[in-house]
Amino acid sequence: MNKVKIILSLLVIFMTGSMTSLSAQTKEISLEDIWSGEFSQERMQNLQSLKDGESYIVQNYDRSTQNMKIEVFSYKTGEKTANLLTSNSIPGLSVFQTFSLSKDETKALLGTDVESIFRRSTKGIYYVYDLETKTLTQIDDVKIQSPTFSPNGKKVGYVKDNNIFYKNLETNTTVKVTTDGEKNKIINGVTDWVYEEEFSFVRAFEWNPGGTKIAYLKFDETKVPEFSMDLYGIYGEDLYPTQEVFKYPKAGEDNAKVSLHLYDLDSNTNSAINLEVPEYLPRLKWTEDENLFSVQSLNRHQNELKLYFVDADTKEARLVLTEKDKAYVDVTDDLTFLNNNSFIWTSEKDGWKHIYHYAEDGSLINQVTSGAWEVTNYYGFDDKSGRIYFQSTEQGSVNRDVYSVLANGKNKVRLTQNTGTNRADFSADYTYFVNTFTNTTTPAVYTLHRAKNGKLVREIKDNSALLEKLDNYNLSPKELSTIEVNGYELNTWMIKPPNFDPEKIYPLLMFQYSGPGSQSVSNTFFGTNDYWYQMLAQQGYIVACVDGRGTGFKGRDFKKITQEQLGKYELEDQISSAKLFGERDYINADRIGIWGWSYGGFMSTNAIFQANDVFKAAIAVAPVTSWRFYDTVYTERYMTTPQENPSGYDDNSPITHVDEFDKGNYLLVHGSGDDNVHVQNSMQLIEALVQANKQFDWRIYPDKNHGIYGGNTRLHLYTLMTNFIKENL
Predict the structure, then answer these.
(1) Residues 56, 46: contact at Cβ < 8 Å?
(2) Active-site residue list
(3) Cα–Cα distance list, 293 to 312, 373, 501 (Å)
(4) What is the mean pLDDT of each run of 10 residues along the chain (729 residues)?
(5) Superfamily for the 475-728 domain
(6) For the Dipeptidylpeptidase IV N-terminal domain, which residue ranges apply (predicted)?
(7) CA distance 28 to 135
(8) What is the residue extent of each domain of the chain?
């Protein structure tokens, strides 16, 4: 029998008191319940801390009066203390969607008619509202991107038609910073598609502290191949489809040529900053000195990251720090400059992600944290107390706790005490933090704490109403444990049918994602898919998940073992786990299925093709079917290029293994409007299956992106998957 180490035994579900009371419940979950929002949690609105550290603001919309409000609340009491602004009180502006404040909190940037471009990018009509003079100024008469106040609040920089502009709010004049921007050729001040998707940022210009200079990136996309995507106009009445064309560098192809530039507002001049021909410039940030900024560069393999300091007067770049790894170096937003331009940095160089403190010249002052656990979120540095605030896995890889520690690494304080997942949102001066706590039996609970010692100030909001509602349903506990597979103890969760009988035999559905650094097994409450799993459990299925090698938060070596072989070790672990589950007396080894989305779809496809003696059925949603079709930044980070590593790409591609698909049942799903994992992946696989005369089921959702949602789409998709499971597993 397999060795199982239970690390969290959940005998009480949703505070009902006992399994006896649970068995008396008869109400079952339906797909309509799930997708109607029946089980949605009550969440705190996004809050923004004001600089006094005692107040925060939230955005509220009053439907009855069609009035958008920015309201001020007290951290300590939770009581509303003022209205910062309301749309009904602003002549010429009926409503707004987004807002941000200037650093001095005297002006608000308000966005209207905001529309999405890709995952993170938007454009809209923007206004500046002066909170003192009560005047409204429109920034531009057309939609713009990434408007941002200068630190003194006197100017707003933005991007239009791939060029950078700034508006002088004192003179009401506009200056064009760059002139060579052109669609699908030159981009100034915002990122291209692959940077937005894989380096997770859009705005690629930064004001210096004095508001007199702008550092920015320029992307020359001329040699990047174009990708075209047909859109069928499913919401319109057009007779002909349209085509969206954008630059998308697939693995091994040309990236945009990125360069670093500096604009001086006083002289109205642009200067190019010379660096060692970088492949990527994923981060740009000013220090506390208005004439010194930093830029991070990566080679194409992404295994050497360099931090440069650039002198804005001499335009010279000085190499400060080099981070190397045999596999790859992660890019983060953790870099923080202290008043003396020493800086906080995070690194995996000792085998675990930890915090380091460096001097301005790049010499190490000290390693702040250490141990066989990971820093999972860096919250910031309080220059008054000298304390660093962070989240970590010190209490176990499935858990998260919040800590503070002095910059010298001493006097570490655990600020959260409940076992589960704790996330903090700190006030501007680090006096307070709002903690969000959840575990497998507790939906989100929001509480206010003192940052100094973690002491509870007040309870803010819980989800007791959701727990009461769930009392009416026939639900099962989500059991967290570990399973020993291929020499490793892997985290796993399992949901069994209500009134589970170990003398009976049940079919098993496995879910996984398995992508590098990901985590699907955590001590958190139910997400939407968990309610679907509960529904399947009510219908007699066991559902389980295993985080195999390559997933995150268990050290550098565990995560990076999959380098140059994406899919190999991950698949071995899913197959071995399924076999071990199948040895349990209550699991039918002949009725094991697997499913996943995106990377998980890549995995489930490989599972049914290469191990259909283990898996009877598989579902793949929006899968990568060959890493040759995916983008440069993500793919080459883990695989290098196809030219350098052709066997790594082809040996683990599902397309390579269609001939091995001798038995079992396979459902393939994709959205035709997926700009991320292109439907080309599924079309290539479909053709390979057809030519190999392999029967399977497939579904294309027209014009739907990687998330495949909108209207009844998710209900339709999950009905499809449910029926497939019931018919084939």
Answers:
(1) no
(2) 598, 674, 706
(3) 7, 32, 64
(4) 35 30 64 91 86 92 86 93 91 90 96 92 96 95 97 97 97 97 97 96 97 98 95 82 93 97 97 92 96 97 97 97 97 95 97 98 98 98 96 98 97 97 96 97 96 96 93 95 97 97 98 98 96 97 98 98 98 98 98 98 98 98 98 98 97 98 97 96 98 98 95 97 98
(5) Alpha/Beta hydrolase fold, catalytic domain (3.40.50.1820)
(6) 102-443
(7) 56
(8) 475-728
